[in-house]
Amino acid sequence: MIAVNIRFLRKSENLSQEEFAERFGVSRQSVAKWESGESTPDLQKCREIARYYDLSIDTLVSVSLDGLEINEKTTEGKYIFGIVKMDQDGRVTLPEYAREVFGLKPGDGLMVMGDTAKGGIALAKVSLGNLFHKK
Questions:
Q1: Which of 56, 76, 96, 99 is most buried, most CB within 10 Å of its CB?
Q2: How many CA atoms lie within 13 A of 7 on its CB side?
């Protein structure tokens, strides 16, 4: 999946392999090998590419981006952090980059909202204030 996604991200900005390579400090041949699936970027390069495009590493390597609109200039402040799996108790772990972007720390409050018509669930950071304060 990473090969397809790297090619998709590069083409989404109309970059040549050379321009993409310069952006991430690698050779054009490296980009060509990544896109062909002959090799993959190391973890540090994956992290750089994912951060540049506001993606989680998990999304970069395992979610098809084809068809998604990813353009940092028109989607400022909007992110695709990746896919998480709910455990048997209904818990999910938010991707590290999502926690960094929103400054989330253990114990922070999140409001859970949903829209069944659109099939979506959303989270919003909230101040818990005295809601959970014992008197």
A1: 56
A2: 12
The backbone torsions φ and ψ at residue 51, rounded to the nearest 5 degrees and listed phi first, read -65, -40
Give the chain's mean pLDDT. Answer: 83
Where do we find the tokens 């999946």?
A: 1
SS (H, E, C) the chain: CHHHHHHHHHHHCCCCHHHHHHHHCCCHHHHHHHHHCCCCCCHHHHHHHHHHCCECHHHHHHCCCCCCCCCCCCCCCCCECCCCCCCCCCCCCCCHHHHHHCCCCCCCEEEEEEECCCCEEEEEEECCCCCCCCC
Global confidence as pTM: 0.54
Token couple for 29: 């041949």
